[in-house]
Amino acid sequence: MKIEVKNLTKKYRDKYALDHLSFTLESNKIYGLLGRNGAGKTTFMEILTGQMLASSGEIIIDGENPFENQNITESICLIKEGNNFKRDLKVKHVIQMYSYFYPTWDAALAEKLLQTFKLNPKASIKTLSKGMESSLGIIVGLASQAPITIFDEPYIGMDAAARKVFYEVLLEEYEKRKRTIIFSTHLIDEASLLFEEVLIIQDGKLVLKEEAEELRTHTCAVSGSVEAVEAFIQDKEVIHQKKMAGMMTAYLFATEEEANAHGLHVEGIPVQELMIHLTDGKRSA
Amino acid sequence: MKNKLDETKPIYLQIKEQIEDSIINGSVDAHERVPSTNEFAAFYKINPATAAKGINELVDEGILFKRRGVGMFVTEQAKLQLLQNRKQSFYENYIQPLKREAKKLNIGVEDLMEMVNREDEDI
User: Fold this and answer.
1) Nearest chain B residue to A189, by CA
2) First to last CA, chain A
3) Complex prediction ipTM
4) Is A194–B47 a contact, with Cβ atoms under 8 angstroms apart?
5) Would an 8 Å CB–CB cutoff place A172 in contact with chain B?
6) Which CATH number fits the domain that encloses residue B27?
7) No. of H helices and E strands in chain A?
8) I want to staple A72 with a disulfide (CB 3.0 to 4.6 A). Which of A66, A138, A215, A234 is the partner?
């Protein structure tokens, strides 16, 4: 399903949570939605899932508006970082409820994943640890098979081993049945290889939307003498720079080959660092 | 097989290089099957579209061929072709950086030649 975001704006009193956000998400890709706390990611996801109205602008999903639109809501599954389920329900009731709601629900997968994550169907939600509750969210999100599945920091309390299982299962299911997955996380180093495209939001605005492989190809950190680095970067878009003892490092949009040809020392930039520098308030545009 | 990929460099190029290396060093021969997109994706936990890009480039370059429903296989001329390509890029990938570093350290051409000609036990 195609998601078109047009001039999407959400205002709380005189503060913009989303500030004229525009972009299009194509079907069946895994998107990484990144940004610092308070950047507007959660507001965006709430409008996308039809739980909130925009102040102005709109989101169009396959030509339709998501707000209180059942066609759309049963095609989207949002798993938040917590409080996804009522406290006094049992695990099996949660599974049952979601199976009624999503026409695409895969009961066999839900069953299998309960075993993978060692969840007892008879346990009630309030007795689950934080990590187990997160596992249940992941099971519901994956088993929904919703054409648009959104994971917003879905693994609070899950240890590294359990998160690894999540990545494995996510990829396995995605390979079997392609769908749009929007994945928002602060654990960027762990998850960045899963993304086909990366979106970075800051202060309600889109800072970057690019294929992950393009980012790896067209961004790098170059180091050398201040003179040499400044000569190289003068006509390029610089993300961040630092100097020490006559040496300089610049993070910028350039290929490794270009920088090599100038005899500079070149390194790649992890997506995590790119996000940090691109959303640095002090950065001069 | 590398255990981990460098997440700061294009992933499809690393997948491509790995397949190339295993053809060059003989661990996969002509007409043998190489891992599929999904196998690479599962092994490294990477986006399948990314893995597919590396494999598809090798198909376009005539290094691999697709047998529908069976998988990806190494072509007859793959090894020869890869060796030729690698020899061509040897100068810029190895000799040029070597000369640059030598210049930085004030190592002259004679010293460099002496090092190249030195008998190393392990080579």
Assistant:
1) B7
2) 34
3) 0.82
4) yes
5) yes
6) 1.10.10.10
7) 11, 13
8) A66
